[in-house]
């Protein structure tokens, strides 16, 4: 989160988004308590770290079929000046940009930075 703070000033609002992917065989508004609790815990940790530098930080949990589409929808709604996308390490330990990041980079309407943490 320090990385995001380097691209903003103290008045900037930082929105943290955690997307829970819902398979098509389930209704989109299904309640998945385990996934929601995990997302809430992750966002709470990131919010607490980020608020030390940027008091105007909040998180949102979104359920969607496709993470890339959900991110682009949030961009349309919030009209950010910059989007920073974090990457995930694959279970086999190898780095892969992933289809969602590729989708967002290809279709996004605002400046975008792809961020890979040093631990990957």
Explain what this protein looks like in three dimensions.
This protein is an alpha/beta fold. It has helices at residues 2-5, 33-51, 67-78, 99-107, and strands at 14-21, 57-64, 83-86, 112-115. The chain has a domain at 2-65. It is built from 4 helices and 4 strands. A two-stranded parallel sheet has the order 1-2. The chain has a two-stranded parallel sheet with strand order 3-4. Strand 3, helix 4 and strand 4 (112-115) form a beta-alpha-beta unit. Helix 3 (67-78) runs parallel beside helix 4. The mean pLDDT is 83.
Q: Give the % helix.
A: 25-40%
| Tally of helical runs | 4
Could you give the count of β-strands? 4
Q: What is the average per-residue confidence, as pLDDT, rounded to a whole number? A: 83
Uncertain runs are none
Rg computed from alpha carbons, rounded to a whole number of angstroms? 15 Å
Key words describing this protein structure:
two-stranded parallel ribbon, two-stranded parallel sheet, single chain, 4 helices, alpha/beta, globular, 120 residues
What is this structure's SSE topology?
Blueprint (H helix, E strand, L loop, with lengths): L1 H4 L8 E8 L11 H19 L5 E8 L2 H12 L4 E4 L12 H9 L4 E4 L5
Parallel strand pairs: 1-2, 3-4
Question: Quick gist of this model?
Answer:
With 120 residues, this protein is α/β, with parallel strands linked by helices. It has helices at 2-5, 33-51, 67-78, 99-107, and strands at residues 14-21, 57-64, 83-86, 112-115.
């Amino acid at each position: 989160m320090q990385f995001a703070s380097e691209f903003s000033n103290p008045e900037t609002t930082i929105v943290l988004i955690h997307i829970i992917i819902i398979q098509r065989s389930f209704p989109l508004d299904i309640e998945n308590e385990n996934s929601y609790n995990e997302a809430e815990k992750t966002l709470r940790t990131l919010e607490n770290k980020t608020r030390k530098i940027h008091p105007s930080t909040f998180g949102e949990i979104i359920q969607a079929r496709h993470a890339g589409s959900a991110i682009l929808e949030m961009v349309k709604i919030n009209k950010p000046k910059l989007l920073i996308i974090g990457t995930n390490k694959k279970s086999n330990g190898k780095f892969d940009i992933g289809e969602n990041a590729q989708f967002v980079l290809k279709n996004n309407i605002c400046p975008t930075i792809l961020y890979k943490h040093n631990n990957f």
